[in-house]
């Protein structure tokens, strides 16, 4: 992210997420689901979650970086624990 710029990486990641979510309406087969949600949305989510959290933590927090990263990671896991069963 630091090599290409956060803005550029986030635009690409959000474009992948929007493209994958937008194409979901036309899914009819299992392979299309695996391609869209496993690959396209997986890559977009991977760019936006852990990597962005590390960059933000290193830029904004001088002390207690580990605590902040732990809170970000645990909030992601908690969100999955709560919302995935609902979905």
From TrEMBL:
GO cellular component, one term: plasma membrane
Compartments in which it is found: Cell membrane
InterPro entries: MFS_dom, MFS_trans_sf
Transmembrane segments: 9-27, 33-55
Keyword terms, alphabetized: Membrane, Transmembrane, Transmembrane helix, Transport
Coiled-coil annotated spans: none
Chief subcellular location: membrane
SUPFAM superfamilies: MFS general substrate transporter (SSF103473)
Stretches assigned to the Major facilitator superfamily (MFS) profile domain: 1-87
Membrane topology: Multi-pass membrane protein
DNA-binding found in the keyword field: no
UniProt GO MF annotations: transmembrane transporter activity
Protein name stated in the entry: Major facilitator superfamily (MFS) profile domain-containing protein
């Amino acid at each position: 992210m630091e090599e290409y710029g956060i803005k550029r990486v986030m635009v690409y990641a959000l474009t992948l997420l929007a493209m994958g979510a937008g194409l979901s309406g036309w899914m009819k087969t299992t392979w299309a689901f695996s391609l869209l949600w496993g690959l396209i949305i997986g890559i977009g989510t991977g760019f936006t979650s852990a990597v962005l959290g590390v960059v933000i933590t290193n830029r904004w927090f001088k002390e207690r970086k580990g605590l902040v990263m732990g809170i970000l990671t645990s909030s992601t896991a908690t969100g999955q624990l709560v919302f995935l069963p609902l979905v």
